[in-house]
Write a structure and sequence with these properties.
The chain has 127 residues and is α/β, with parallel strands linked by helices. It is 50% helix and 19% strand. It has five helices and five strands, in the order E-H-E-H-E-H-E-H-E-H. It is globular.
Length: 127
């Protein structure tokens, strides 16, 4: 069973996507802030991280930076989910090394498609 870590300061978003992804057969870890998200990633080594950018305290950019610095988490696929909808925001995130970028609001099925694409890429690397 694949594990997905969701990091978002919006509890409603966390609960909704956690329920949806669990119904689709994934184990889901959640965090409502960057510090706890990093701790969960280091402890459980999820197969995918989906992280908001705009969060109080530690933003998603810093979460990405810290996880990319660790040998344990540097290769985990990473998707930003954000209300930042400008093309330059997406380009900047991709330049930082995220695997994908989805703009809020979005449909759960669209996020699932992105997750599946990341998993297919992982499977190709390990075969």
């Amino acid at each position: 069973m694949r594990t997905i870590l969701l990091i978002d300061d919006n509890i409603e978003i966390l609960e909704n996507f956690k329920e949806y992804l669990e119904l689709e057969g994934y184990k889901v870890l959640t965090s409502n802030n960057g510090n706890i998200g990093i701790a969960l990633a280091l402890e459980f080594i999820p197969d995918l991280i989906i992280c908001d950018i705009l969060m109080p305290g530690m933003d998603g950019y810093e979460v990405l930076h810290q996880l990319r610095e660790s040998a344990k988490t540097c290769e985990i696929p990473f998707i930003f989910s954000s209300s930042k909808s400008e093309k330059t925001d997406r380009m900047y995130a991709l330049k930082l090394g995220v695997d994908n970028y989805i703009v809020k609001p979005f449909e759960p099925k669209d996020l699932l498609k992105m997750a599946c694409t990341c998993f297919k890429s992982l499977d190709l690397l390990h075969n």
